[in-house]
Structures are given as C-alpha cells and as structure tokens.
Design goal:
Strand content of chain B: over 45%
Helix content of chain A: 10-25%
Low-confidence stretches of chain A: 11-21
Distance between the termini of chain B: 33 Å
Helix content of chain B: 10-25%
Number of strands of chain B: 14
Strand content of chain A: over 45%
Largest sheet of chain B: 10 strands, antiparallel
Order of helices and strands of chain B: HEEEEEEEEEEEEEE
Distance between the termini of chain A: 34 Å
Number of strands of chain A: 14
Oligomer: heterodimer
Largest sheet of chain A: 10 strands, antiparallel
Largest interface: A-B, 58 and 54 residues
Radius of gyration of chain B: 17 Å
Mean pLDDT of chain A: 88
Structural class of chain B: mainly beta
Number of domains of chain A: 1
Mean pLDDT of chain B: 88
Radius of gyration of chain A: 17 Å
Low-confidence stretches of chain B: 12-21
Number of domains of chain B: 1
Chain lengths: 145, 147
C-alpha cells in the first residue's frame, strides 16, 4: 500500500510539473496559419484559418497548409516552411529564420527580435515594448505562473 | 490511509484533465494581439505582438493592449473589446460577435462562421474548408509544454 501511495505521489508531482506552462513563440507560415513552438522546439499549438493538416506516424504535425514542418532526431522542430529553427547548447530556440530569441536568468523569453518582453514578480507577461517581427508573436498561458 | 490514497488519485485525475485542454477559438483583439478561448469560455492562451497585459486579483487577464476583457462567471469570458461572447444551454460558446460557432456529435468545433473543420478518427484536425473570419482562428492543441 505504501509503495502504491509513493507511486501515486510521484505520479501526481509529475503531472503537476507537466501541467505547468512554458511560453512559446508563434511562427506565422502562410494563409494566416501559424505554429507555436516551445522554447525547446516542441510544437504546442496550431492556429489555423484554412487548409489541410498532416501528421506522421509519431503523431507529429508535418504539414500545415502548404508549409512542411521538419524535425531533428530529438523531435525538435528544425524547419517550418522555409524558416529554419536553431538551438543553443541548452537546447533552447535561439534563432527562427534570421530573428534572434533571447532569454533572461530565469530562462524566460525576453526578446524576440527587437521586441522586449517584461514580466511581473509572478512571471506573468506584463508588457512587450516595441513589436515582434511580422511573422512572430509571443505566446503564453495568461495568469499561470 | 485510504482517504489519502483516494485524494491522490483524484489529484492525479485533476492534473491530467487540466493538462489536456481541448481545442480553442482564437479571437484577435488589436495590434496583432489575440486571446484563445476554450469552448467553455476560459482563456487558455495569449498571443502578443506588442503592448501591455493586465491581470485582476484572481490572475485573470482583463486587458490586452487597449482591449478590455470582461467575465460573466468565475472564468467565463463575456466580452472581448466590442465582441460579445454568447453561450448555448450546454455552456458552449455559440457566438463570438456576430460569428456563429457550431459543434458536431462529439462536441467538437465543426464550424467557425462558414469555415468547416474536419477531424480524423483520433480527433486530430485534418482540414479547414473555407476560411475562418478575419478575426478568428481555430486553435488545435498538439502538445503540452514540458519545460
């Protein structure tokens, strides 16, 4: 019984941790469709106006409208349409196309191109100074810390 | 001990459910910003290009850029800027502004305005025929964040 309880505690912690939000960067592709990728290169969401979506046998999105989505051996996105995604040694997204993504000491996205993102003491986004590039936005779960 | 065990089982179920939001409808506000609503009217995501975000004491977002967001229940959005959000008797969004939202037999969004949404056998979106209205998009959750 105690082992089962311990297992359930660990499972609960695991789930709670996975329920925590991480911020994402939304990349517009074509026809008003976009893909939001986490800072470690996972496709979190699709925002779609029209067109077809295709998946591979690993359940990964590989086509959105006329844009192909490609992955590396770690299932990180490396290409969305003709936009390449690059990573630093910590496996964080640092370049989407020619746009640089920067992080602060808490591993939060603080810059997308020239747009500066600020957070409150609860790590909620409170402002973007400037404007993100036309084909990118900052994506977050509001109010979740 | 059994009560504790039951509590953990319930907590696990709760976190799994919370970790799996269903698909949503994105509503563009202004300045290229948008909020995404679940079919029950809860704000799941905020996508921002510029401007400020303001929260109330319950950590609900109440302002995105120059657009106010109001609620009719604990977390149920009733208005985004000038667009009213209406609900049917099952508490599902059935109208955003003057755009109708329709559902299929499996309670999935099947239409946003004139745009028809199709799914495969495992309920993954496979196609949108037509085009969603300029200020709305369909949001499909592919994966939960893990970092």
């Amino acid at each position: 019984m105690r082992k089962l309880l311990l297992l359930l505690v660990m499972f609960s912690i695991f789930n709670a941790a996975h329920a925590l939000s991480s911020d994402a960067i939304e990349v517009f592709i074509s026809h008003g469709n976009s893909v939001s990728i986490s800072t470690i290169g996972k496709v979190l969401r699709l925002n779609i106006t029209s067109g077809a979506i295709a998946y591979d046998n690993l359940n990964r999105v590989i086509q959105v409208g006329d844009a192909a989505v490609m992955y590396d051996e770690s299932s990180r996105v490396i290409q969305i349409g003709n936009i390449s995604v690059k990573y630093d040694q910590s496996s964080r997204v640092i370049n989407i196309g020619n746009i640089t993504i920067s992080y602060d000491f808490s591993n939060r996205v603080v810059k997308i191109g020239d747009a500066v993102i600020t957070y409150d003491s609860l790590s909620r986004i409170i402002n973007i100074t400037g404007k993100t590039p036309d084909n990118m936005r900052f994506a977050t779960v509001p109010g979740q810390t | 001990m059994r009560k504790l065990l039951l509590w953990f089982v319930m907590f696990s179920a709760f976190t799994i459910v919370n970790a799996s939001p269903s698909d949503a409808i994105e509503v563009f506000t202004s300045d290229g910003n948008s909020v995404s609503l679940s079919t029950a009217g809860k704000i799941f995501y905020l996508n921002m290009a510029s401007g400020a975000a303001v929260y109330d004491s319950s950590s609900r977002i109440i302002q995105v850029g120059n657009v106010a967001i109001t609620y009719s229940g604990v977390n149920r959005v009733s208005k985004i800027g000038n667009d009213s959000i209406n609900y049917d008797a099952s508490n599902r969004i059935n109208k955003i502004g003057d755009i109708k939202i329709a559902y299929d037999f499996a309670n999935r969004i099947s239409k946003i305005g004139d745009a028809a949404i199709a799914y495969d056998v495992v309920s993954r979106i496979t196609r949108i025929t037509g085009k969603t209205p300029d200020n709305l998009r369909f949001v499909s959750v592919i994966e939960q964040p893990q970092n």
